[in-house]
Design a protein that fits this description.
The protein has one domain (33-327). It is built from 7 helices and 7 strands. The protein has helices at 11-62, 86-90, 101-104, 112-116, 128-131, 250-253, 320-327; strands at residues 69-70, 99-100, 175-180, 231-235, 268-270, 301-306, 311-315. Strand 6 and strand 7 (311-315) form a beta hairpin.
């Protein structure tokens, strides 16, 4: 009788096949991850373009861009010209505001229903049910699609241990407006998350002023350096410093505040460099995890929206002087995005 032997893999052949498949997966995985990040970057750029379009539509209706923040002068820091948006945003007395420019553009990013629920006689905390709402266009998909567990420590954080509110669970933002090329915020200390605006001495300097400043609406004709040469919006970091702190400024200066509705460093950034100020701990440029600076989770740079409505990726290697000029709108230095 003739016997038939069934064909089968030997152990060696099976191991070789498994090894080859493993190598193919190892080779393909970086390419897949790169493709996914490319898609996320495109989505991020599209978010900034939508925000830019919303700003232009807002300006068409109101003949000016929205103020960078709405803050009452009553909250000036004692003995200085600084004014602090945080007590107003977190208070609940009638007539308080403490809100950001991002609130004003909600009707222009198809968030009319959310905007219509806002009670303008109350503060941000008084509008918590609205402010604690995720708005997809305010999130960079590379970083997150919603508030992560670690973000809740910087979502509307307590200013003092006695504050009654706690970290929110939604309503974050990964984009902010450019306040200018000047040192725009006072450094917080370890015991205080407040970041007061630096007032007229810095924020309103005509040679360094940005598109978004508190209580002042910018008109397009005031952007004398040109719409295509002025940063309007950009990505901002969302970090919590957990390392060693060389001084009492370090940890709070390297920890973000999160939330699109409230005024302050969570919705505004500057393009100043450490070489032009005495700002302790500030490293200059962006992607430096400093609370005043722009930053992203993209490798090698961040996306910015220009005043003309376009959006560009700017590399970290940009000259700091050029970057500062891009952040100011009428300094007489017409910088070009590299």
């Amino acid at each position: 009788m003739r016997t038939h032997r069934r064909a089968a893999f030997s152990l060696v052949e099976l191991l070789v096949a498994v090894t080859i498949v493993g190598l193919l997966i190892a080779l393909l995985l970086p390419a897949v991850q790169a493709a996914r990040e490319t898609a996320r970057r495109l989505a991020c750029v599209n978010n900034l373009k939508q925000i830019g379009l919303a700003l232009h539509n807002y300006a068409d209706q109101y003949d000016a861009l929205p103020p960078g923040a709405i803050v009452g002068d009553v909250y000036q820091t004692r003995g200085t010209n600084n004014f602090d948006p945080w007590p107003e945003a977190t208070g609940d007395q009638p007539g308080m505001h403490g809100s950001s420019w991002m609130l004003q553009i909600l009707p222009f990013i198809e968030q009319n229903a959310l905007f219509d629920r806002w009670d303008f006689t109350r503060s941000v905390l008084g509008n918590r049910s609205v402010a604690e709402t995720d708005v997809a266009v305010f999130y960079c998909p590379t970083r997150r699609r919603g508030v992560r567990a670690q973000d809740q420590n910087i979502m509307f954080p307590k200013r003092t241990p006695e504050d009654s509110y706690a970290g929110w669970t939604a309503g974050g933002n990964d984009y902010a407006g450019c306040i200018g090329a000047q040192n725009s915020f006072a450094n917080p200390t370890a015991s205080n998350v407040a970041r007061p605006f630096c007032g007229p001495t810095y924020v309103y300097r005509t040679d360094m002023r940005g598109v978004f400043v508190p209580n002042l609406a910018t008109r397009f004709h005031e952007i004398a350096d040109g719409l295509s040469s002025t940063i309007a919006v950009g990505e901002v970091p969302r970090t919590i410093w957990t390392g060693p702190a060389p001084n009492h400024y370090w940890r709070p200066c390297h920890t973000s505040i999160d939330g699109w509705a409230a005024a302050g460093s969570n919705t505004l950034f500057d393009t100043t460099s450490a070489g032009s100020t005495n700002d302790i701990g500030q490293l200059g440029g962006f992607n430096n995890d400093y609370f005043e600076s722009a930053g992203s989770d993209h490798v090698g740079g961040a996306h910015f929206g220009l005043a003309d409505g376009s959006a560009r990726f700017i590399g970290e290697e940009i000259d700091q002087a050029v970057y500062a000029y891009l952040g100011s709108m009428a300094d007489g230095q017409v910088a070009r995005v590299p």
